[in-house]
Amino acid sequence: MKLIAHIIKGSAGPAVFLFVFVSIARFVEWCALGPEMFYGANFYEAYSLFNTTSFTAFVLCPIYLVLLQKLYLSAFDCLIVVRHGTRLRLMCSACGLILSFSLLFSVEVDIPSVLGLALIGVPSFDMLYVFLSVIAHAVFFSACALVFLSVKLLNTPQFFTYLAVLLLGVWDFMAAGVPGGGVPCFAWSRTYLPFSLDPLGVVIQLVPLFVLTACAAVSLLFSIQSADFVLTGSSDII
């Protein structure tokens, strides 16, 4: 835990930079939509307008890649790898960092949304809905991070590492545009929780996203087990 706290503290600079960048992107989004788009909309409709699959695919995921690069350097630095000693402990440490970074970015994504809705004057804020949405967004970003690290540890070209995350981000946007449907949506669109917050409805909505995250976690475990840490100078790891 002390190691994770130290790494998060060392990431304060990039986190502030990303928060400013995301805030600017949110402002541009607000201007592109136009205040008239939100007139007459309730809180849930307005909040959904601020969190579309297209904005996630073409803005949030590319920005998140900057934080993921920092995550990789923090989680698999050769000294940190040696310090953990075993691959299982390294996996647990990486998962802790992933949860921390994902939750951090999710908060950075949602704070400008809430502030934007407040400026517009959207009535009847449902902060419980916002809180649960932040958690759902963190699960999605955790899946992205797991996929990123899984591909990265296989020593694949950088292009394919970025492509894997971008494909995950753009999947639901492309699936929604397929004529006649039939293509499953299991990524960002699964963070659209029922407005009533019916427990069963929330669980049904999030199950595919949790399955995706679990599969990505298994993939990361396989990548860690298969990775040749000797190439990074971490020859002491078991």
Describe what is shown at a glance.
This protein has helices spanning 2-10, 12-33, 43-49, 53-75, 78-84, 87-120, 127-152, 158-176, 199-226. It is mostly helical and 238 residues long.
Describe the structure.
The chain is mainly alpha-helical and 238 residues long. The chain is 74% helix and 0% strand.
Which secondary structure elements does this structure contain, and how are they paired or packed?
Elements: H1 2-10, H2 12-33, H3 43-49, H4 53-75, H5 78-84, H6 87-120, H7 127-152, H8 158-176, H9 199-226
Helix pairs in contact: 2-4, 2-6, 4-6, 4-7, 4-8, 6-7, 6-9, 7-8, 7-9
How do the SSEs run, as a string of H and E? HHHHHHHHH
Structural Rg:
19 Å
Report strand %: under 5%
Helix content: over 70%
Key attributes of the depicted protein:
disordered N terminus; about 240 residues; globular
